[in-house]
């Protein structure tokens, strides 16, 4: 029936708002024993094999073409309780590159990927070395050295660390690309002249003192404590299910002037001698290697010498 309505984010007469009660899905996934982590504001990426080596892939959703979108909207707005909407996968979607692959969570029917409740088919395309379209993605990987620039916790508590990580260590993981030219740069990274982008593995920032699962507690946690100055919470359930809550779902503001991510010092660990490849002088890898061992009070304080 009309279950589709509450998910429609692309044309927004509907606002998605959280309810007081936990969803069936959350309870089935055992959210009470899940690990709550910070939802980081960037664009989603994936590391998997391409041309025989680990590659970074950018998120690309297959979307319906105009005619199909019209049909789909008519179905959603129709008053009769239609049974279901039938997609014609061959004809209803805008073309995507040949290298496109569907995301793992997608359902299939007769060997064809099925769209989600928004009419989108989430998927991925590989980020080529000198890609114009995905130039910020390609700035955080070096395929010769098979490395990615990653932000996560340092072994010392309360300290963040930026360091190169082998792409093979990240195989089959999803990550968030954050930085100067992504989503209006909520963390204030870099500058127009010297853009900085980094990858954050999903689930990297576990929340130390999470709220209970009552809506009022979650709201006061977001509004009242330093650790709550985040875009949202993602609960990682034991069965692999992810339950996501964005501040907007509670009617709260984002981005914020001061974020939790920027309240922590960060150290750069990048020993050039570990890599026998030549990083171009303009590359992020070269710039970060020159800052090896340096510590900054906040991510937004990182600057490269000209």
From TrEMBL:
Top-level taxon of the source organism: Eukaryota
One of the Pfam families matching this protein, by short name: RLIG1
EC supergroup of this enzyme: ligase
Keywords: ATP-binding, Ligase, Nucleotide-binding, RNA repair
Record field: catalytic activity: ATP + (ribonucleotide)n-3'-hydroxyl + 5'-phospho-(ribonucleotide)m = (ribonucleotide)n+m + AMP + diphosphate
InterPro entries: RLIG1 (IPR041211)
GO biological process: response to reactive oxygen species; RNA repair
Keyword Transmembrane among UniProt keywords: no
Cofactor: Mg(2+); Mn(2+)
GO MF, one example: RNA ligase (ATP) activity
EC number: 6.5.1.3
Job of this protein: Functions as an RNA ligase, in vitro. The ligation reaction entails three nucleotidyl transfer steps. In the first step, the RNA ligase reacts with ATP in the absence of nucleic acid to form a covalent ligase-AMP intermediate and release pyrophosphate. In step 2, the ligase-AMP binds to the nucleic acid and transfers the adenylate to the 5'-PO4 terminus to form an adenylylated intermediate. In step 3, the RNA ligase directs the attack of the 3'-OH on the 5'-phosphoanhydride linkage, resulting in a repaired 3'-5' phosphodiester and release of AMP.
PANTHER family named among the record's database cross-references: CHROMOSOME 28 C12ORF29 HOMOLOG, RNA LIGASE 1
Name of protein: RNA ligase 1
Organism of this sequence: Chrysolophus pictus (Golden pheasant)
Lineage: Eukaryota, Metazoa, Chordata, Craniata, Vertebrata
């Amino acid at each position: 029936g009309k279950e589709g309505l509450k998910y429609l984010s692309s044309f927004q007469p509907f606002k998605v708002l959280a309810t007081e009660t936990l969803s069936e899905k959350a309870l089935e996934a055992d959210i009470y024993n899940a690990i709550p982590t910070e939802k980081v504001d960037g664009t989603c990426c994936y590391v998997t094999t391409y041309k025989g080596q680990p590659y970074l892939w950018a998120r690309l959703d297959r979307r319906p073409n105009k005619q199909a979108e019209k049909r789909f909207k008519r179905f959603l707005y129709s008053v009769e309780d239609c049974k279901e909407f039938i997609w014609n996968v061959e004809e209803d979607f805008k073309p995507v590159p040949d290298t496109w692959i569907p995301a793992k969570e997608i359902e299939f029917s007769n060997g064809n990927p099925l769209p989600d409740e928004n009419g989108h088919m989430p998927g991925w395309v590989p980020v080529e070395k000198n890609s114009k379209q995905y130039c910020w993605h390609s700035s955080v990987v070096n395929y010769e050295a098979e490395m990615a620039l990653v932000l996560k916790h340092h072994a010392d508590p309360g300290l963040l660390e930026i360091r190169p990580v082998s792409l093979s260590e990240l195989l089959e993981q999803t990550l968030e690309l954050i930085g100067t030219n992504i989503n209006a740069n909520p963390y204030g990274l870099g500058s127009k002249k010297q853009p900085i982008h980094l990858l954050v593995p999903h689930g990297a920032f576990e929340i130390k003192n999470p709220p209970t699962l009552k809506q009022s507690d979650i709201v006061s946690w977001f509004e009242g404590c330093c650790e709550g100055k985040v875009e949202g919470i993602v609960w990682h359930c034991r069965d692999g299910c992810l339950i996501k809550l964005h501040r907007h779902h509670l009617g709260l503001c984002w981005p914020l002037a001061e974020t939790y991510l920027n309240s922590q010092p960060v150290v750069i660990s990048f020993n050039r001698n570990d890599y026998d490849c030549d990083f171009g002088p303009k590359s992020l890898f070269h710039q970060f290697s020159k800052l090896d061992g340096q510590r900054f009070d906040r991510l937004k304080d990182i600057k490269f010498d000209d």
